[in-house]
């Protein structure tokens, strides 16, 4: 907690929780803006730029060690102009300087530390620094002294170095020249035209299979990240290659994560990643985007496997988000911290004595046995609840109960422990509302409504969409990126458009309400106008009306979050499928061609983008439901349709108002008193059916 009696710096006037965390530092911080840059030029001082986010553990560590320290502050205030940036508010600034950091050091992370000229050109980059040299880490004090001296004695050399760094990074950023011939995959496309696409998909699978951990699931060694879009890519690969190991890899990974300590078995939701290979020890922060994407992965796996455990994980994620991460107005908060009371994980760990203080002795012993809570502990002397140790199987044999029944028998115990945990000091919550991450959670909730038939999820998704359209969209239609405490600000980025459009499309599939499709199309048109690169194809991260940086970032790599270009490609393909418009189809095909080179270079790094490629290669599938949206038959048919995995299918509702957007829908007239269902492939439809049981039989052949 900050001491409000301490003097403040300029960050006190910001809305970002991350910047406000540093508002009481003795460092004379500036927010990113012209005031800082003008002062840097006038006083000819280099800029010390620090980028992080409010739930970043090592950002907190560096603040406590250095930015709250008077000696460090004295150096920064004397020789530098210091700027703080919230990477979640300014992904463009973060993306740009992370590219420099990776080019200079071969790695990156947060806090991101950049030292640059007054013209914003970097000549030094790194991440976390302790106050003084420690265990081989360079100390921040020594670094500041050295750079300060160099700037005073060899400024020209530093400026030359900065110019060279900027030129080198800029030269490696451009996509190949825009391809000129779209590939039409929907009709009369030769196998040779499709060869590169199939080859890229197969190479991605081969790389993932080679990197798969068969013992614990996941990919690579510790630390392990959830990478849910990799899992959803593999689900699609398994659909097309049932003899592969793709589905087994997905199940092993999803089961491992759900059993491990990365999953909050008491309050639900997933932590950011696992620091070990077993999924046991998490980095405890919880991010909205991780939970949205993981919910989607578990829902799709449930459609494939019909595993009730996977459905329950998705439901529990939604329970967590709707309970703890939803504003009264309906928007979703961004994250929860790893730390509580300056200790990582303190809120989440237990001792047997703490469990016994809440439950009766017999239940406490059973709970501790099942969830690996012991006197020895598994994390710094305490225990992270998990189901990895196999104790539950021993209990199965002793009680003759199935594993799922053992867990159910401890549900009241879990609730009691949750109530007790609520009395602890909670981790910090980053309560800003980001359009992009809200778009992901809207998509997940809408998918949850489709797959699980839960109207509560649909209502929550619709309320969040209404929040964005009300509070994060200007009168002229321009999306904004961030809302907090009544303040909407920052021009929306590509991810804000692409992710929110995705959410709107999923809401349309779940509800049939034409407003969602209409709004999605309008936003896509605006995205094309503001973000499309007419010279080299693809979409920039920032709009043409945004701040001019050293270069205009463009991202296609699917990291912790899918890139805006990846999701846009799939959105464009869906628009082409839904509307039948050649315009959208050709834009999608061109997008695939424009990124062909990067896809071929490292296929497994673009698993969200490859899902668009999988979609493009598959014959189109459509369901048209003609009838009242309030019809019970329509609802039952929709539920049947979404009960199975149909990743290449779209649903259109002929309720009488879509003729202008979807002219071909007029070929499927409304009946006055019944719902008609048309199943189509490549826009060729079978005879309509009007009864639910007839529809079920028809689906078996689809």
Structure explained in plain terms:
There is one protein chain. By secondary structure, the chain is of the alpha+beta class. The protein folds into four domains: 162 residues, Glutaredoxin (3-Layer(aba) Sandwich), CATH 3.40.30.10; 339 residues, Alpha/alpha barrel (Glycosyltransferase), CATH 1.50.10; 76 residues, no CATH class; 77 residues. The chain has 26 helices and 19 strands. It has a five-stranded mixed β-sheet, with helices on both faces. The termini are far apart. InterPro entries: 6-hairpin_glycosidase_sf (IPR008928), 6hp_glycosidase-like_sf (IPR012341), Ssp411 (IPR024705), Ssp411-like_TRX (IPR004879), Thioredoxin-like_sf (IPR036249). This is Thioredoxin domain-containing protein. It holds the Pfam family Thioredox_DsbH. It comes from Desulfosporosinus orientis (strain ATCC 19365 / DSM 765 / NCIMB 8382 / VKM B-1628 / Singapore I).
């Amino acid at each position: 907690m900050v001491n409000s009696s301490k003097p403040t710096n300029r960050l006190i006037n910001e809305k970002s929780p991350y910047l406000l965390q540093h508002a009481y530092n003795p460092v004379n911080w500036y927010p990113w803006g012209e005031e800082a840059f003008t002062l840097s030029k006038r006083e000819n001082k280099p800029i010390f730029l620090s980028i992080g986010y409010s739930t970043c553990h090592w950002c907190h560590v560096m603040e406590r060690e250095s930015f709250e320290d008077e000696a460090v502050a004295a150096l920064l205030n004397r020789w530098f102009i210091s700027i703080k940036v919230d990477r979640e508010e300014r992904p463009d600034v973060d993306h740009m300087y992370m590219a420099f950091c990776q080019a200079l050091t071969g790695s990156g992370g947060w806090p991101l530390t950049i030292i640059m000229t007054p013209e914003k050109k970097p000549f030094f980059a790194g991440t976390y620094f302790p106050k003084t040299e420690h265990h081989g880490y360079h100390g921040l004090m020594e670094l500041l002294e050295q750079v300060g001296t160099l700037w005073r004695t060899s400024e020209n050399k530093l400026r030359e170095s900065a110019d060279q760094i900027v030129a080198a990074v800029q030269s490696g950023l451009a996509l190949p020249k825009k391809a000129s011939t779209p590939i039409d995959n929907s009709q009369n496309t030769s196998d040779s035209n499709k060869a590169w696409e199939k080859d890229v998909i197969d190479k991605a699978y081969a790389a993932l299979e080679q990197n798969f951990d068969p013992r614990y699931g996941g990919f690579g060694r510790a630390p392990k990240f959830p990478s849910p879009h990799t899992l959803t890519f593999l689900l699609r690969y398994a659909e097309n290659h049932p003899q592969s190991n793709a589905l087994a890899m997905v199940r092993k990974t999803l089961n491992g994560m759900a059993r491990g300590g990365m999953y909050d078995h008491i309050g639900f939701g997933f932590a950011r990643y696992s620091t070990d290979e077993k999924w046991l020890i998490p980095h405890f922060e919880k991010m909205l985007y991780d939970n949205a994407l993981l919910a989607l992965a578990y829902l799709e796996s449930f459609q494939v496997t019909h595993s009730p455990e996977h459905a329950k994980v998705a439901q529990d994620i939604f329970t967590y988000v709707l309970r703890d991460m939803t504003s009264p107005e309906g928007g979703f908060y961004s994250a929860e911290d790893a730390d509580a009371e300056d200790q990582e994980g303190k809120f989440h760990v237990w001792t047997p004595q703490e469990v016994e203080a809440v439950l009766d002795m017999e239940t406490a012993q059973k709970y501790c046995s099942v969830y690996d809570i012991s006197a020895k502990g598994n994390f710094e002397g305490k225990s992270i609840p998990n189901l990895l140790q196999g104790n539950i199987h021993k209990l199965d044999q002793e009680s003759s109960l199935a594993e799922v029944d053992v867990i159910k028998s401890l549900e009241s115990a879990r609730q009691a422990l949750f109530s007790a945990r609520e009395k602890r000091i909670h981790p910090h919550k980053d309560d800003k509302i980001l359009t992009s991450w809200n778009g992901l959670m809207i998509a997940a909730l809408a998918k949850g409504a489709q797959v699980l038939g839960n109207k509560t999820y649909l209502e929550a998704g619709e309320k969040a969409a209404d929040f964005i359209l009300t509070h994060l969209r200007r009168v002229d239609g321009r999306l904004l990126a961030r809302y907090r405490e009544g303040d909407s600000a920052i021009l929306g980025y590509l991810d804000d458009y692409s992710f929110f459009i995705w959410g709107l499309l999923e809401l349309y599939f779940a509800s049939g309400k034409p407003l969602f499709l209409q709004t999605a199309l309008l936003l896509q048109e605006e995205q094309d106008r503001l973000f499309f690169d007419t010279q080299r194809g693809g979409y920039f991260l920032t709009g043409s009306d945004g701040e001019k940086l050293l270069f205009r970032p463009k991202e296609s790599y699917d990291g912790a979050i899918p890139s805006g270009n990846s999701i846009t490609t799939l959105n464009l393909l869906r628009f082409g499928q839904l509307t039948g418009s050649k315009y959208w189809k050709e834009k999608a095909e061109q997008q695939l061609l424009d990124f062909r080179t990067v896809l071929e270079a490292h296929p497994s790094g673009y698993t969200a983008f490859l899902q668009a490629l999988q979609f493009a290669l598959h014959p189109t599938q459509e369901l048209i439901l003609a009838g009242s949206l309030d019809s019970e038959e329509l609802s039952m048919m929709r539920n049947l349709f979404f009960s199975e995995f149909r990743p290449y299918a779209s649903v259109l509702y002929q309720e009488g108002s879509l003729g202008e957007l979807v002219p071909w829908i007029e070929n499927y007239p409304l009946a006055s008193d019944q719902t008609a269902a048309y199943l189509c492939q490549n826009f060729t439809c079978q005879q309509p059916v009007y009864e639910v049981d007839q529809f079920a039989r028809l689906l078996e052949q689809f």
